Amino acid sequence: MAHTIKIAAAQLGPNHLTSRREDVVDRMLRLLHEAASYGAQFVLFPELAFVTFFPRYVLTPEELEPFFEHGDLLTSPTTAAFFSEARRLSVDVSLGFAERTPEGEGFNTSIYYSASTHSILSKYRKIHLPGFVDPLPDPNAINQLEKKYFQPGNLGFTAFRAPALVGITTEHSDSTKVPRSSSEREAMRGDPIFGMIICNDRRWPEAWRCLALQGTEVVFCGYNTQGYCPELAGTSPHKPQTKAEAEAAALVDHLLVMQSNCYMNSVFGVCAAKAGLEDGNFDLIGGSSIIDPKGKILAMTETRGDEVIVADCDLDEVKYGRSAIFDFDRHRRVEAYALITGQTGVVEPPFLR
Amino acid sequence: MAHTIKIAAAQLGPNHLTSRREDVVDRMLRLLHEAASYGAQFVLFPELAFVTFFPRYVLTPEELEPFFEHGDLLTSPTTAAFFSEARRLSVDVSLGFAERTPEGEGFNTSIYYSASTHSILSKYRKIHLPGFVDPLPDPNAINQLEKKYFQPGNLGFTAFRAPALVGITTEHSDSTKVPRSSSEREAMRGDPIFGMIICNDRRWPEAWRCLALQGTEVVFCGYNTQGYCPELAGTSPHKPQTKAEAEAAALVDHLLVMQSNCYMNSVFGVCAAKAGLEDGNFDLIGGSSIIDPKGKILAMTETRGDEVIVADCDLDEVKYGRSAIFDFDRHRRVEAYALITGQTGVVEPPFLR
Fold first, then answer.
1. B121-132 pLDDT, tens digit each
2. Of A258, A310, B249, B320, whose CA is between 20 and 30 Å from B114?
3. Which residue intervals define the domain CN hydrolase in the entry (chains A, B) (predicted)?
4. Mean pLDDT across the stretch B149-173?
């Protein structure tokens, strides 16, 4: 019996300050259709999919607010048709957006939409917000103000099961074929376990481990990654880079953390970029990819524009690593890990006498 | 002022069941001299440096015991001259060995030897022991019996400061040039912070993070890594590999975890293999390397025999990452990490109704 799901990542080319949300959603619909035409059962879209990467700008509250979504995406006039189409195609979707809660809090959020239930099954709010609360003093610097515009996510790294993807034919999914009882689902290894992270989270092994400890089989990660950004690249001032060098290095770093964390957690990883030159000035890397539990890249985008990639992911491959070298129960030694939760920053040993 | 230290990794070619410990130490002395001739201030030797990788064998207690060291390496007849020579050359050394304590416990251990104090500054006992307690049922299988022959390390992941390496000239170190007071040392960024892990530990991000949270600037990792080993490779039975494919994959995995964990912790990594064909049958990978805090390989061995590599490591490079994207104090969110210390194995979400 096949335990394979066909997964797609839909990379978006640049959005701009002048881009209309309706036009972005039209592009996303085209990518959704393309993914469905390949038989994809799930499509991942990027972080902050509907807008330009606005945390690079210093914005007044009035300028900021239009970048946020304020209601239910499934019924919002701009996005309702997108999810209805996903339902019609029987394709699950995950995407990122700036969330404004009724209480006025802002989060960098991803949701998982299930076509078979036509509902948002799970929501993740980005925990590792990069950058600074305050704008950089240099007026020419590229800011990274996620810590100013968003609060750290308050929903944890929470894995969840999704129906109607596994244990069915690789034809477009049809909820009438989903087994009904838990024992039936379990026998078919139905209800695969997914987890979401966003962008900078992928550089933090804690995020991956928390999801893997819940049995996550596929981690989804949308991102917007600046090719050149000293804060992000950790670039030494002693070794200035050209823009091309910095972009190449950012792509290397991105793949390094995706591949290694997939391997060290024996999990599939799917990542989707918003890529290309935004607002005429800001280069975002591509490199959207689908990676297997050994860290091998199964598919990767070739452009920095709108582009769909797909791969067949046999969820049984997760089990091999987790029953051998990465059998957590047999090998992890939690008594030695106290510092990881016991302290946030660095505490150095004292100097020698 | 230079905060650069010249670090060497001394890869060892194979040892055999028939190898005499004296001959192995002679080879190590030659590598030590070679490293010193390059101006190295520190040399890392492999895990279980003196012996063949005996945990692959099912051994009686009588057969097992000769692989262990039973006394103080600095005064043992076999190894005393090695450390005296390191002292004479003013080169610090780290190496791995099978430790039998006076109480009869067995550990897979590394020590850090300081030439300026002629003492063992720090000891690490391997925490992530791979493999199984019991031999595999298949008589043709390659066993991995570290869990049988060793107990999990009980000294934690403990970073330590070493004197006489930083803030001095790059000539062979001379303890008389080491500043005496803490403030002098601090001003010169003296007393660099080191940490040790062993082999399989490098695949566990928890090990790296515990060391990085103590400000570790260089992580040392000796290893013996079988090219083909289903337990280690987590190989899917659906995708059998040739021996050559398996060895290539093992090298890829090794570098992936070394480079990514250096990057995600903004730390230098130095790793030294015991490599080559042991006992005529068991192929160990090479790939001894020195890696910078961006994950870039500065030096790597080209053979699977005795071979020294050196690199200049500017410890200031650690600071850039840790003050930017990997500024733990600013970015880590320990409130979201409870599962990492709260549970050992996987706990899956329930099946859907």
1. 999 999 999 999
2. B320
3. 5-315
4. 76
Contacts of range B62-71, beta carbons closer than 8 Å, 24 or more positions apart: B64/B149, B65/B100, B67/B98, B68/B98, B68/B99, B68/B100, B68/B106, B69/B97, B69/B98, B69/B99, B69/B100, B70/B100
Contacts of B206 in chain A (CB under 8 A): 205, 209, 332, 336-337, 340
- Paired with A198 in beta bridges are A222
d(C-alpha B209, C-alpha A329), whole Å: 20
Q: Are strands B42-44 and A119-125 parallel, antiparallel or unpaired?
A: unpaired
Q: Which amino acid is at A236?
A: S
> Is residue A289 within 8 Å of residue A319, measured between CB atoms?
no
Whole-complex ipTM:
0.93
Q: What is the four-CA torsion angle of A132, A134, A137, A140, rounded to 10 degrees?
A: 70
A214 with B349: Cβ contact below 8 A: yes
pLDDT in tens, B249-302: 999 999 999 999 999 999 999 999 999 999 999 999 999 999 999 999 999 999
Nearest by CB to residue A337, choosing from B206, B260, B347, is: B206
DSSP A207-268: HHHHHHTTT-SEEEEEE--BSS-HHHHT--TTS---HHHHHHHHHHHHHHHHHHHHHHHT-E
Exposed e or buried b for every residue in A154-167, given b needs 16+ CB within 10 A?
A: eebbbbbbbbbbbb
Percent of chain A with pLDDT strictly greater than 70? 88
A317 pLDDT higher than 80: yes
Mutate to test the interface with A, among B132, B189, B198, B264 (most CBs of A within 10 A): B264
Strands (E), chain A: 4-11, 42-44, 68-69, 92-100, 106-114, 119-125, 160-161, 193-198, 218-223, 268-273, 276-278, 282-284, 289-291, 297-300, 307-314
Nearest CA in chain A to B216: A348
Q: How far apart are the first and last CA of chain B?
A: 66
Q: Smallest Cβ distance to A230: which of B159, B233, B324? A: B324
Q: Which of A209, A215, A232 is opposite residue B205, by nearest beta carbon?
A: A209
In 3D space, the residue among B194, B195, B191, B171 whose CA is nearest the CA of residue B181 turns out to be B191
SS3 category, B167: coil
Q: Inspect the interface and report whether the beta carbons of B161 and A350 lie closer than 8 Å.
A: yes
CA-CA-CA-CA torsion sign (A229, A234, A237, A242): negative
Q: How many CB atoms sit inside 10 A of residue B70's CB?
A: 12
Gap between the terminal Cα atoms of chain A: 66
Q: What residues of B are annotated to the active site?
A: 47, 126, 199
The residue written with tokens 């000891």 in the block is: B123
**Do B325 and A235 count as a contact with CB atoms less than 8 A apart?**
no
Q: Among residues A193, A199, A140, A139, which one has the least CA distance to residue A166?
A: A193
Output Rg (C-alpha) for chain B, integer angstroms: 20
Tokens of A138: 């240099």
- The tally of CA atoms less than 13 A away on the side-chain side of residue B12 is 32
Sketch out chain A's domains with CATH numbers: 4-328 (3.60.110.10)
